[in-house]
Design brief:
The complex is a heterodimer of chains A (355) and B (36). Chain A has 355 residues and is mainly α. Chain A has one domain. Chain A has helices spanning 13-30, 35-44, 49-73, 79-106, 109-144, 158-163, 182-199, 204-215, 219-243, 249-269, 275-301, 307-339; strands at residues 2-4, 9-11, 170-173, 178-181. Chain A has a two-stranded antiparallel ribbon. Chain A has a two-stranded antiparallel sheet with strand order 3-4. In chain A, a hairpin with a 4-residue loop joins strand 1 (2-4) and strand 2 (9-11). In chain A, helix 8 (204-215) runs antiparallel to helix 9 (219-243). The termini of chain A are far apart. With 36 residues, chain B is mostly helical. Chain B has one domain. Chain B is 81% helix and 0% strand. Chain B starts with a helix and ends in a 5-residue tail after the last helix. Classes of the chains: A mainly alpha (355), B mainly alpha (36).
């Protein structure tokens, strides 16, 4: 048990290290900073809402540097796309932090953050489920027809619509192989920046789908470029949150210790597993995170009267973290076995990447 | 054991139940009296 003087609570250290490690692993693997899980999780573990947001963005700022270096080595970053987005992202972060400080002054930051998290995660879960289902269907059709399936597969027609917007200046992103109006990229930056500033997240859980479904980048390029963006938005967000007194640095350090190890493993795992599988994991982590956040929100709204709500909120939040770690580890183990021609379950080959 | 591994759904469900069970054990062993 450790006294977090600035946050004003006492909590077990291993909870923060485990949280850091899980989101580090999931973040390095999916490309999202993992913040959408951390802010509700820290509120579930008893931290005040604004403090959860501040701690989250501070640990993401450090962790994303490690994951970005790894993705740069794997060639997953489009620098033109990433740097074009930076201006919009920083403007959005500033707006988001001001909004958070406003809810903090009203004493409603916890409820506002949980409500927002639940709403966003339900929407994202439904969308990724539909897209993943479509992609899996297409893979099965191609496999039946005897054609080879690469590491990436595009099923959405939305990118074509946005790439056809002829509003100058037009940006050519060579690594991502897309040609698109700069304004589309900047608006994606502003929208994700507001969420990043308010929720204390890197914004990857919105930016990765936005880069895939709006800009038309492949999942792996979206993951790498998004991490580059998080270095900037996380850095600026961390500075602003610290200036607002929303950060307990001791809690941040414990999370970073776990996150450093998790991020390295997660990034390496992306080279073993195909895009649709990454989206599978994203959507299943969302449903568990949502359930935990929703139960804690209900617990707070009922004046903390029903203890069982808090119990289930903790079980779902912690269970989600353990589940994600085990799921990613077993997927990587099966992928390695598949590459070496050893026996794997029948459903594995459609999820793993061809080397 | 093979039926469990060969069905993606069954595999996910068992993994999920194991994780939730582990979380409940952690709650009762370390967190019950400390969380507000």
């Amino acid at each position: 048990m450790f006294e977090f003087a600035i946050a004003g609570i006492s909590a077990p250290i291993f909870l923060l290290v485990l949280t850091g490690m899980t989101v580090g692993m999931v973040g390095g693997f999916i490309g999202v900073g993992g913040g959408y899980m951390v802010t509700p999780a820290l509120i579930v573990f008893g931290f005040p809402g604004y403090m959860a947001s501040g701690i989250d963005v501070m640990h993401i700022a450090g962790k994303s540097v490690v994951a970005t270096i790894r993705h740069r080595q794997l060639g997953n970053i489009d620098w033109i796309l990433g740097l074009t987005m930076v201006g919009g992202t920083m403007m959005g972060v500033e707006m988001g932090v001001r909004l958070l400080n406003y809810t903090k002054a009203l004493g409603l930051s916890g409820i506002a953050l949980l409500t927002g998290s639940v709403g966003i995660m339900i929407g994202l879960f439904l969308y990724t489920q539909i897209e993943t289902h479509k992609a899996q269907k297409k893979i099965n059709e191609l496999t039946k027809a005897g054609k080879t399936v690469g590491r990436e597969l595009s099923v959405s027609t939305l990118p074509l619509f946005f790439q056809n917007i002829a509003l100058r200046p037009i940006v050519r992103c060579h690594t991502a192989r897309i040609v698109i109006s700069m304004w589309v990229i900047v608006i994606i930056g502003i929208a994700t920046g507001v969420l990043a500033g308010f929720f204390g997240v890197g914004g990857g859980f919105i930016r990765v789908p936005a880069l895939v479904y709006i800009a038309g980048a492949t999942t792996h390029i979206a993951v790498g470029t998004d991490l580059l963006e998080i270095v900037v938005s996380g850095g600026y967000g961390a500075l602003r949150q610290y200036m607002s007194g929303n950060v307990d640095m001791i809690a941040v350090w414990f999370m970073i210790i776990g996150a450093m190890f998790g991020a390295q493993f997660g990034s390496i795992a992306t080279s073993f597993v195909r895009g649709p599988a990454i989206r599978y994991i994203l959507s299943y982590s969302l449903v568990l995170a949502t359930t935990g956040a929703f139960l804690r929100l209900f617990y707070m709204l009922t004046a903390q009267k029903y203890e069982f709500l808090n119990f289930f909120a903790v079980v779902f939040t912690l269970g989600e973290m353990i589940f994600l770690c085990l799921f990613i580890m077993t997927l990587v183990i099966f992928s390695v076995r598949h590459r070496h021609g050893k026996w794997v379950p029948g459903w594995i080959p459609s999820l793993v990447a061809t080397p | 054991m093979n039926w469990l591994l060969n069905s993606m759904f069954a595999y996910w469900v068992v993994l999920l139940l194991f994780s939730l069970g582990a979380a409940a054990v952690i709650y009762f062993m370390w967190l019950k009296d400390s969380l507000i």
